[in-house]
Amino acid sequence: MGTVFSFDLRDPATPAVTRALAAAVRLLHQVDAVFSTYRPDSAVSRLGRGEITVDRCPPEVGEVLRLCALAEQRTGGFFSATAAGRLDPSGLVKGWAVERAADLLLAAGARNLCVNGGGDLRLCGEAAPGEPWRIGLADPRHPGRLTGTVQGRDMAVATSGTAERGAHITDPHTGRPATALLAVTVVGPSLTWADVHATAHMARGRAVPVPGYPALAVHPDGTRTADARFPSGDTS
Amino acid sequence: MRRAVLATVSTVAGVVLLLALKPHRATPPPVAVPPPGRTPPAHSGGGSRTGTFTGQVIDTRYGPVQVAATLRQGRLTAVKVLQTPSDNGRDQEIADYAVPRLTQEALGAQSARIDAVSGASYTSEGYIRSLQSALDQAGA
């Protein structure tokens, strides 16, 4: 199963931005080659099998594993790169990679853009002059429908849920699939951390308050609970 | 009008630059084959990019995927799914879920209300590539 990444640039494409876009695409392919658990020859697969040490991996592997350790610590162990019993930092890598791709575009002068990694979004600037980004939240109970919206400028939006792939998030403390929530969306300044907290809330079965990262949880009966600071775009 | 122009530009950027971070199992990469009975694009005017453009059939690991894109004056207005994998229930289930989401995503950048959707972790390389080939035909 793959993940689709898309770039949505709202500024005129200068030569520098066009070059940065190509570099961002190359970066994502490199990240896939190094971190894919589908590829038996990736550095992470070989590391997981104990064939090599972190020292022998590309430097970004060490960086990601340090972030994973920090994430485990900050979430009381509800985020874990070994939740399913084997090394799989994918839960952190996707947001981290999207963020690095967005940084390349920002460094090239792009200001208003959206990088979407399989439904996890890094939003920079605004959608149009004077208009915030408006993001629909997939309804985990009704495919193709939305359960709400968020809006804002310069923010990250990550959603973790059971809708498409079933209960694929494992509670690292019990080793069992987490089923108490259908989906959690977290908004905040960093996509890496929004994604980590969304995954941890799912594993825990409830959204605990995290400063700077408000959450919206969707319960099995379809009701929603949101932090007061959650930037809901709903009018109701 | 300015909004429409911006949206068009962004959609082209958004759709054209999609890429798949795909699994690299021992299977060969999907190969695009010409569809057996391609319906001719219903052009209504040379450069106006209006009409329905049928994408190529893309063979994926899960089965063939084909879509058709409808454009009105360069704006993507609809995506019709002509073929999705349906060999087993799970394939059908994934396609039933993913396809409306992808259509929403493809059209979403043009919606005045929604710029993108969070929470879709879909697998959709065939859809994207077929849509891409439809847009290529349209010159969009």
Automatic annotation (TrEMBL), chain A:
Its EC number is 2.7.1.180. It catalyses: L-threonyl-[protein] + FAD = FMN-L-threonyl-[protein] + AMP + H(+). It holds the Pfam family ApbE. One of its GO terms (molecular function) is transferase activity. The keyword Magnesium applies. SUPFAM superfamilies: ApbE-like (SSF143631). Its cofactor is Mg(2+). InterPro entries: ApbE, ApbE-like_sf. The keyword Metal-binding applies. Keywords: FAD, Flavoprotein, Magnesium, Metal-binding, Transferase. This is FAD:protein FMN transferase. It comes from Streptomyces orinoci (Streptoverticillium orinoci).
From TrEMBL, chain B:
It holds the Pfam family FMN_bind. Residues 26-39 have a biased composition (Pro residues). Residues 25-54 are annotated as: Disordered. Residues 61-138 form the FMN-binding domain. Keywords: Signal. SMART domains: FMN_bind. This is FMN-binding protein. InterPro entries: FMN-bd. Residues 1-26 form the signal peptide. The keyword Zinc-finger does not apply. It comes from Streptomyces orinoci (Streptoverticillium orinoci). It comes from the Bacteria. The keyword Signal applies.
